[in-house]
Amino acid sequence: MEVNRRQFLGYLGKGAAALAVASAGLGSLTGQAEAKTADHLFGAEKTKKTKKTIGFFKPIEHTTKDELVLPEGFKYDVIAAYGDKINEKGDTFGFNNDLTLFFPIEGSSERGLLWVNHEYTNPLFVEGEKQGDKYTAKQIELLLYNQGGSIIQVYRDKDGVWKMDTSSPYARRITGLTPCRLTGPAAGSKAVNGATTVQGTFANCSGGITLWNTVLSCEENFESTAQEAGLDPTHYGWVVEVAPFDESFAVRKHTALGRFNHENTAMGLSKDGRVVVYMGDDKKDAAVYKFISKGKYDAAAGLKNSALLEEGSLYAANLRKGVWVELTIDAVQQALASESFRVPANVGYSKEELIAMFQTQADVLVYAHEAAMILGATPTDRPEDVEISPFDNTLFIAHTNNDTHGNIHGHITRFFEKDGDLGAMEFDFEIFAAGGRQSGFSAPDNLTFDSNGNLWTVTDISGSSMNKGVFAHFANNGVYVIPTSGEHQGEAFQFASAPVDAELTGPWFTPDEQTLFLSVQHPGEQSKSLSELTSMWPHRPGDTIPRPAVVAITGFTF
User: Fold this and answer.
1) pTM for the full model?
2) Rounded to 5 degrees, what are φ and ψ at 368?
3) Contact 69, 503 (CB under 8 A)
4) pLDDT score recorded for residue 515
5) Cα(395)–Cα(415) distance, integer angstroms
6) Residue 105 in contact with residue 113, Cβ under 8 Å?
């Protein structure tokens, strides 16, 4: 079976994850969508070619401007920025927005719900500095409220401008104060101190969408917020599910998917119909994971499919052998019992402490990183975004960097599951693209695809390194387009540049690919004080501080 651009867009029109359902039994998808670059997106036949133009837009140059810089013919609308009112209740948009997911209303590409993650705060702009050595109760409330996620309703008006509809009955916040239910093997266990319900979600970095049209939001660097707020750290570091159209669906954390510094999720189907979720652990020397459900996906079951994420098997990748290693209590205990066992360098416990730690399967899930390393999973270079190609079921992984091992600029890895089956236990891999001067980008992070198979990536050079030393060549962070086939396969072409100190995150297209949603996170983050601001983006009248915001980029033509 072939999938061309029209079919691709048709699947997206039914929900972005619908394509994963279609691809599960297709193996390698061929045809127009696989072979060409995305010329249709940018009117290539009208574009004068240069040595850096391959037909789908005129790439921009690296820049240090305090602006969201786009190619000629494109514009952006600021939809919502930190502190903006999002509903009639008076809820406000959180800080440091990241993941965006668009959920069409009645199949429209011009009106829908937008889920937006909020990853962390900045005391200069949000909660203020500590009083002595701790925060006040009010400061902790601000710290927790401004993380989590926002559900906002967005629309494109008659003049083509994207706006937020604050009268929407769906608009609401999920925060560090929202009750969340634990599901799966660790719920109620000693490993989480008996908890079945926990307070809130925070450190929400990226995530993904389910086949049944819900949000999976990932808790990443949760440790500092949990400590400051006096919360149990075992209650955080999970994948959180939210139903944007159904407030009665309890917000839940799926412990079967493991606890670690989650970056995102990518969901697909095995050839036998089970749900597969790929995940990255965003820290140095960490593993790539996948979860395979015990039960099979049923499209007619709707939200009831959520239960598939409560029971299944968790695996971590061993790149040396090209196999997925199942994380089980029996395997961990057997490894620890061996006289030849040596504690891996990236596990911060003694052998005796590990033996005491791992008593049940719940312990394996709560301490998934340690279990993975004990069982021989490969420590990799900050695996951040993981995405399944909708065209051939290969897996793209953004390994952002790891200066400990000299991987300064990172790379994008491509996994090939055996027989193209996401449920396979064996895989091969290649380095699809390497960061550095030769490619023009550094520190790849979030990924997405367009309908002709081009891979879009944003970059995540830290604010402390940006425009300095070996990173000076790349200037500000940006968005890059990398063809996955054809003459320019693996070459990066810059589409956008971020404001000062910012990174661009969460790229997500509308079903018709006329709009790209994008988060502008932490502009002005390196500011020393309110009188020494490094950025004032988005440069709105009346603003006195820089504000993270989500934007809609338009100008795509067919």
Assistant:
1) 0.93
2) -65, -40
3) no
4) 97
5) 5
6) yes
